[in-house]
Amino acid sequence: MKHIGHSAHTGRTRHVGPAELAGSTGLGAWAAFAVLAVVVGRGPAPGVDGGLLDWSVAHRSSMSVSAARALTDTGTGVVPYALVALAWMLLGRTLRQRTAAAAMGCACLAAGQLLRYGVMELITRPRPPRQEWAAYASGWSFPSGHTTTSALAAGLVIWATVLRAPRGRTALCAVVGCWGVAVGLTRVYLGVHWFTDVVGGWLFAVGWLGVCLCAAAWWLPRRGAARETGEPPPL
After folding, report:
1. Is 192 left (phi over 0), alpha (psi -120 to 50) or beta?
2. Suppose 98 and one of 92, 117, 174, 210 were both cysteines; which one would form an S-S bond, judging by CB atoms 3.0 to 4.6 Å apart?
3. Do residues 183 and 72 make contact, with C-beta atoms less than 8 angstroms apart?
4. Alpha-carbon distance 235 to 159, whole Å?
């Protein structure tokens, strides 16, 4: 009986792996995102949004606005893709593997951006009043695009760093994580997003990264097993 119980316990432990952890984390983030989307969708901004916007407007200077603009610009365009591509190249050993890994990481980022755009068009939440803006912005407000993109990029870079970086990865992960958070906060400081838009972007990024991690944890071991047996890898 003890042996059977030990085997059952061992079996349960063995099934709790990266896929399950990523999946449960992603589901939690999606659930929180859905609740937040219902709260902010087409309705007045919660009190925290107005308060933080007022604080941001009252604490601006020409120097701080310039710094915020420079930082926020890194959260979109080429920079996130360059960071992801460089980090994911570390996952390969040959040129072909590195190219494939970089393409996979960038594809995950691009797919997340497209999905976010669809959600944004579905919710159609207005941005803060234009007179409060300290930077250019376009489109609807929820979830924040710069926030989502930078958080996704930060998560993908941290993922690759944890897997491959031999030393100094804790400091690097901390720097990249702080960058992802800071980009989101600049959107509120510059007055182009409500704070709940930024929180929505963070939750969306965690949810999508959970999907990607879960898929990778399920697919890659099967691909490796197929190579060892000589069978064609699963698509």
Report:
1. alpha
2. 92
3. yes
4. 23
Q: What is the C-alpha separation between 116 and 148, in angstroms, rounded?
A: 8
- Rounded to 5°, the CA angle 174-179-181 comes to 95
| Res 56 pLDDT > 50 | yes
135 close to 76: Cβ distance less than 8 angstroms: no
pTM of the complete model: 0.85
- Kind and range of the H or E element at 177? helix 169-189
Give residue 22's pLDDT. 75
Residues 26, 205: contact at Cβ < 8 Å? no
| Residue 9, number of CB atoms within 10 A of its CB | 10
Whose tokens are 């804790």? That residue is 170
Of 139, 6, 167, whose CA–CA distance to 76 is shortest?
139
For 100-134, the pLDDT digits (tens) are 999 999 999 999 999 999 999 999 999 999 999 99
Locate all alpha helices (DSSP H) within 41-144, ordered by sequence: 47-58, 62-73, 78-89, 95-123
